[in-house]
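Escalated from tier 1: magnesium ion holo job.
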Amino acid sequence: MTAGRRLRDNIAREGLAHAMAAHNPLSARLAERAGFHAIWASGFELSAAYGVPDASLLSMSQHLDMTRAIAEQVSIPVIADIDTGYGNAINVMHVVGAYGRAGVGAIVMEDKIFPKDTSLLAGGRQELVRLEEFKGKVEAACAARPDRDMLVIARTEALIAGAGMAEALQRAHAYAAAGADLILVHSKQKTPAEVLDFAARWDGSRKIALVPTAYPELTEADMKATGKIGLVIYGNHAIRAAVTAMQEVFARIRRDGGIAEADRRIVPVETIFELQGVPAMKQAEAKYLR
Ligand code: SPV
Ligand code: MG
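Tier 2 regenerated the structure:
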């Protein structure tokens, strides 16, 4: 079954699919084992992992290489964050083909101008592309996907850009008409009121996707209850969890002048061996090394 088919089935069967962000195959594997339906190959997380702002600074190939490496190491679908599509509709065709061949089940493309700034940054540059231009990019993405199951998720940043609810709805309708399979509506409001208002006004012709970073109290049960939200993306919890854990352990080692106490607080090396697939390698050694 294709990755896109699996994601479509998750949404149809569960009502709501959940995706966890990852910035490398190891974090993706942990998300898979925790039970998430899908992996979000997040531009924000990968940018942070490289130590740079999420502002169109990484190249497409940097993100594509990591996304491919993730897709190779998990069996759940990968949803690729392709930002603004790295250019115009022609660039989008090239990009969507490449991500599709890398094995992703879905791409998310946002209606901002390249180079973009990250959405949740206070005072960030948030400029929308013309609606017609983005419709062309959505149509191009749909035409270029290497298999029909791959989902094209159109993301409107109208609320992030302060363009208002009417603009967000108009864009969502236009992107659905252009062939988008889901509409991601992003919001940086500290409560879910804005996205719930959007959901209430939305005609439901396509399921909505949310990234609830800014309004974390909205639960999956609340989302399901709307009957209109089909996908939740936890956008940055892998990198934030990693930073929390590293800060704590690094500080402990400096405080203690040694690793004895820190050692009790972190997984043993054997856990990493297992996550790396060492047991499978040992089996292959026994079988083939002669
Ligand atoms: C990402 O994780 O890269 C996203 C979500 O696009 S956000 O950072 O909230 O824009
Ligand atoms: Mg992103």
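The mean pLDDT is 98.
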